[in-house]
């Protein structure tokens, strides 16, 4: 049975879900948060040490201002209202992505949440915000050049946002779309990939557990036989 150390998720389909309910795309984003909470709970129960969630890509700034504002608000309120609960659940929160582009008040709450949870041990959540994999790789190489270090796979990995975390064992993308959308291109080299038809707000505990169980019995070769 394969152990599960790291699960990465592209939480896609919120907007379409909202419209399907004859409501707004933003209504879908709000509903998507409930799924996030469900998946966190199961991940802790299953003793998975790392969960990486794609919440906002470097390309998502192309969306209408009203949607971006709504998403930032949702993030702010989530962190404000749920920080105590995250601490109670012994969760460590880490942001991966470029924080610079966010408004000051968001940066402040993000940094505060990271600080308050940095010693926690049950589950590390990497929240990918303003995250883009290509620029992450370029930045890693630039850092190595600046420090006059040799460039090899180990060094490039160490200078990514994920530094010395194990690579994801599993990637899940909901929303019936089969693409990576600039997510963890380096780290997913040998991950098992599960594309889910369901939109993120419809994805539930049973769907998640099914994937975890399927993964446990996959023969992983890593090039070997
Ligand atoms: C994913 O859902 C969440 C974010 C990108 C913030 P989408 O907003 O992409 O939902 P669809 O794919 O348009 O339905
Ligand atoms: C990927 O979803 C980003 C997140 C889930 C945050 P998108 O909906 O932005 O991806 P594309 O644009 O359809 O590839
Ligand atoms: Mg989408």
Short description:
With 225 residues, the protein is α/β, with parallel strands linked by helices. The protein has helices spanning 14-20, 25-45, 65-88, 104-117, 133-146, 153-158, 205-216; strands at 6-10, 50-57, 91-96, 123-131, 170-173, 192-195.
CATH class: Alpha Beta
Largest sheet, if any? Answer: 6 strands, parallel
Full CATH superfamily name: Decaprenyl diphosphate synthase-like
Radius of gyration: 17 Å
Instruction: List the helices and strands in order.
Output: EHHEHEHEHHEEH
Label the structural class. Answer: alpha/beta
**Mean of the pLDDT scores?**
98
CATH topology descriptor: Undecaprenyl pyrophosphate synthetase
- The backbone outline, from C-alpha atoms, is globular
Which architecture per CATH? 3-Layer(aba) Sandwich
Sheet-strand content, in percent, reads 15-25%
- How many alpha or pi helices? 7
Supply the key terms:
225 residues, alpha/beta, Undecaprenyl pyrophosphate synthetase, six-stranded parallel beta sheet, 7 helices, binds 3-methylbut-3-enyl trihydrogen diphosphate, binds magnesium ion
What do you see in this structure?
Strand 3, helix 4 and strand 4 form a beta-alpha-beta unit. This protein is α/β, with parallel strands linked by helices and about 220 residues long. Strands 3-4-2-1-5-6 form a 6-stranded parallel β-sheet, sandwiched between helices. The longest helix has 24 residues. Helices cover about 45% and strands about 15% of the residues. The chain has a single domain, classed as 3-Layer(aba) Sandwich (Undecaprenyl pyrophosphate synthetase), CATH 3.40.1180. The protein has 7 helices and 6 strands. Bound molecules: 3-methylbut-3-enyl trihydrogen diphosphate (2 copies) and magnesium ion (MG). One 3-methylbut-3-enyl trihydrogen diphosphate (IPE) binds next to strand 2.
């Amino acid at each position: 049975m394969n152990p599960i150390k790291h699960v990465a998720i592209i939480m896609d389909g919120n907007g379409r879900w909202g419209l399907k309910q004859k409501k707004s795309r933003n209504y879908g984003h709000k509903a998507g948060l409930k799924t996030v909470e469900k998946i966190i709970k199961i991940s802790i129960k299953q003793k998975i040490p790392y969960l990486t969630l794609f919440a906002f890509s470097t390309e998502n700034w192309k969306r209408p201002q009203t949607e971006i504002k709504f998403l930032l608000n949702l993030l702010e309120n989530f962190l404000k209202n749920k920080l105590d609960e995250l601490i109670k659940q012994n969760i460590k929160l880490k942001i991966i992505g470029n924080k610079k582009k966010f408004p000051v008040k968001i940066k402040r709450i993000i940094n505060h949440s990271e600080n308050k949870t940095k010693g926690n041990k049950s589950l590390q959540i990497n929240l990918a915000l303003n995250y883009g994999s290509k620029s992450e790789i370029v930045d890693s190489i630039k850092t190595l050049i600046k420090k006059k270090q040799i460039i090899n796979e180990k060094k490039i990995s160490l200078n990514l946002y994920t530094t010395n975390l194990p690579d994801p064992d599993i990637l899940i993308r909901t929303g019936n779309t089969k693409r990576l959308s600039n997510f963890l291109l380096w780290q997913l080299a040998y991950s098992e990939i599960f594309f889910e038809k369901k939109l993120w707000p419809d994805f539930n505990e049973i769907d998640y557990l099914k994937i975890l169980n399927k993964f446990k019995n996959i023969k992983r070769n890593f090039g070997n036989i």
